[in-house]
Amino acid sequence: GKKVLIVYAHQEPRSLNGSLKKVAVEELSKQGCTVTVSDLYAMDFEPRTTRKDVIGALSNPEFFNYGVEAYEAFKRRCLASDITDEQKKVQEADLVIFQFPLYWFGMPAILKGWMDRVLCQGFAFDIPGFYDAGFLKNKLALLSLTTGGTAEMYTKTGVSGDFRYFLWPLQHGALHFCGFKVLAPQISFAPEIASEEERKAMVASWAQRLKTIWEEEPIDCTPPWYFG
């Protein structure tokens, strides 16, 4: 069976994000997938990139360069265990689903911190060895997110601009950079102002989509998809 990692960033299990995570676990498990959830708030996951991420001596204690130190520590197997635990989950996954509410056109800090710390050089990419040559190139990634704004706000002529614009740094700058093949995002627009029926429909449509998720083709990872 396939292996799925859900990286989940919401504080409240009864939220729509919580429901979307729960239904994904149920649906994918029913298919025979092995599903692992990293519940970042429950784990009290550290989002900051600090000296503590390296066990033992730094390669250059005179001048702290996080990117260099994380790369060297990865090669020496001296990264902190909370990072290596997550890297192991990513390494084993065929599909990584990120479930989160959109904060300021981006990810909540705790999830951004997961990206900053887990997707380090040597593990997720190298120079050269990024975009189509990124080290996670045999994996799929999918952003499932909720917004405060309505769908019409997130159109080309809407006040927030097309939703694909804010996906560029997340999908292209992080996921595709590391080689992931990116599946179309699942966006649940404005659940806060939706009716109970509409929220149920959002959960149901996600569950329905997951039934055939393994047949989907990744999006075209080029600027025109976003800004075309």
UniProtKB/TrEMBL annotation:
Organism whose genome encodes this protein: Mustela putorius furo (European domestic ferret)
Catalytic activity: 1-(beta-D-ribofuranosyl)-1,4-dihydronicotinamide + a quinone + H(+) = beta-nicotinamide D-riboside + a quinol
Source domain of life: Eukaryota
Record-linked Pfam families: Flavodoxin_2
EC number: 1.10.5.1
Cellular compartments annotated: Cytoplasm
Keywords, comma-separated and alphabetical: Cytoplasm, FAD, Flavoprotein, Metal-binding, Oxidoreductase, Phosphoprotein, Zinc
Protein name, UniProt field: Ribosyldihydronicotinamide dehydrogenase [quinone]
Cellular component, GO, one term: cytosol
